[in-house]
Amino acid sequence: MRKRILKLMLAGLFVFCAFGVITLRLARATDGVGITAITLAGPIAFDDIDLRTITPTTPPWFAEIETSGLSDVYIVQVTIVPGGHSGWHSHPGPSIVTIISGTATFYHGDDASHTPNVCPAGTGCVEESGRVHINRNEGDTDLVAVVMQIVPRGAPRRIDAPQPPGYCF
Questions:
Q1: Which alpha helices (DSSP H) does 89-160 contain, by range?
Q2: Residue 10 burial class via C-beta count within 10 angstroms: exposed 0-12, middle 13-18, buried 19 and up
């Protein structure tokens, strides 16, 4: 009787461990490939940011950035080789991305249509906070971007995420 209970306990432990390994493998963050990030400045400490700008031109132009609490600002240069990518991730604050050379192709994990957001050199885009995405270099030259990130004081600039369902790269 004792041997049988011991065997059942060991079998249960084995199943539990195997399930844990499978779950961890499926939920594991994706690593970037062919990516280099150099912090040019930061963290730069900011108090509350309450910026509102209205420029009386035609057409009218308006900008607003507001934070509540202390922030860290970073300026980062990101280079991704052809065929490389950032890995799936999000940010705890907004990122303003300027493409210096190459073409950035962003995919968002919550986009069921998997429609890419393509940003060639000389353009830019904004990455929303909390939105899981990947930046891929699908071109044949190095992608170089300069990114300004605003995050809550002490927060990481990047939060790794597992590959969303339906994506196969």
A1: none
A2: exposed
CA–CA distance, 71 with 151 (Å, rounded to integer): 6
Does residue 169 form part of some domain? no
Strands 95-101 and 117-120, bridge-based pairing: unpaired
Q: Which of 119, 118, 125, 116 is nearest to 148 (CA)?
A: 125
How many domains in the chain? 2
Q: Is the model's pLDDT at 3 over the cut of 90? A: no
Q: What is the CATH number of the domain that holds 46?
A: 2.60.120.10
Taking the C-alpha atoms of residue 33 and residue 84, their distance in angstroms, rounded to an integer, is: 5
Task: State pLDDT tens for residues 41-84.
Answer: 989 999 998 888 887 777 777 888 889 999 999 999 999 999 99
